[in-house]
Amino acid sequence: MSTVLKRYSQLVEAGELKPDAEQAAVAERLDRLAQELEAVPKRGSLLWKVLGKAPEPARGLYMWGGVGRGKSMLMDLFFDNLDIRRKRRVHFHEFMLEVHERLAEERKKEAGDPIVPVADAMVGEARLLAFDEMVINNTADAAVLSRLFTRMMTHGLTVVTTSNRPPSDLYKNGLNRSLFLPFIDLLQERLDVLSLNGPVDYRLDRLGSMDTWLVPNGPEATAELSDAFFRLTDYPVEDRAHVPTCELPVGGTRELHVPKCLKGVAVFSFKRLCGEARGSSDYLAIARRFHTVVLVGIPKLGPENRNEAARFVTLIDALYEHKVKLLAAADAVPEHLYDEGDGRFEFERTVSRLNEMRSDEYLAKGHGEGETLDAPGTTA
């Protein structure tokens, strides 16, 4: 038994995880993969010289299933306990933004197919790529994926990824999907596909009976949201002063600072998201990157802060369309958030969505479920 499976078993024995047959099967497969990757000689060793090329890459893994089934937890165990140098873990959306930036630089050189040098450079940087939440939602990504990953996987890359969907449902109903089908074939050829669709949604289980819309703003609501954040992310409360931050790419041209950013959960203040000049591209980037958003400091809205209210409406639309979980602290319940004045009627749809987002049915949906492909603000 190597480190990955041993650590999983320890967590079950300690009562931190519930026994789950599907999780155990995935942990065992990840354990074998870790051993295979660790057994490969270092680059430049005698074996490499004898072969004249990189050793055949280990077969990867595609973990898919509904929200809260333990995909990210298992990826954590695998990646943290994998003892190799050239490994990288990245959110799939961020990775594709980087790919398009590199392709743009290569095109400036006018030196043939830009995919080849980009793929070769990326394989040189990592022989394992671990992706969080593989999802394809625009034609620009779909157009390059098959050629890019075919090149990388035949030149030494192993891929481990999580997704809410099986490979056959990626880019479903997307524009020119027939051109994307070779990438699905590649995934099924090069990766083992394992599902995690057990009966327990562990993420919802951690929220318990908590109301996701807390009133009023204040220390009590802030403390409850903070506790929820630590439960959702498994981050030790004693290290609360060191919660990671991150910079979220927006449209490939700028970045949005995220004050707390961990395991698909982000924390923002209303002032940062709606009190500053932001648009749909910001909110779409957030909705695609995070499965849960914690939003604090939502004030009463009305004609006197109509710009903030308009941005809030756009934010909620993006979160709702991508089935993002919203945990919030506000000065009023949704029905009384925008009580009177010009704009009150138009706010009714937002009230309806906010209430639906508190329902058990909505909370049980997978992140990105039902999203619109090539939505405004994406690169096409």
Report the major sheet.
Answer: 5 strands, parallel
Report how far apart the termini are.
46 Å
Q: Which range best describes the helical content: under 10%, 10-25%, 25-40%, 40-55%, 55-70% or over 70%?
A: 40-55%
Q: How much beta, percentage-wise?
A: 15-25%
- Walk across the major sheet and give the strand order: 2-3-4-1-5
Stretches with pLDDT under 50, minimum 5 residues: 375-380
User: What is the CATH class of the largest domain?
Assistant: Alpha Beta
CATH topology of the largest domain: Rossmann fold
Q: Give the tally of structural domains.
A: 2
Protein name: Cell division protein ZapE
GO molecular function: ATP binding; ATP hydrolysis activity
Keywords: ATP-binding, Cell cycle, Cell division, Nucleotide-binding
InterPro entries: ATPase_AFG1-like (IPR005654), P-loop_NTPase (IPR027417)
Describe this structure in words.
A five-stranded parallel β-sheet has the order 2-3-4-1-5. Strands 6-12-11-10-9 form a five-stranded mixed β-sheet. Helices cover 44% and strands 16% of the residues. The model is unreliable at 375-380 (pLDDT under 50). The relative contact order is 0.11. By secondary structure, it is an alpha/beta fold.
List its salient traits.
380 residues, alpha/beta, Rossmann fold, 2 domains, 5-stranded parallel β-sheet, 5-stranded mixed β-sheet, 16% strand, ATP-binding, ATPase_AFG1-like, ATP hydrolysis activity
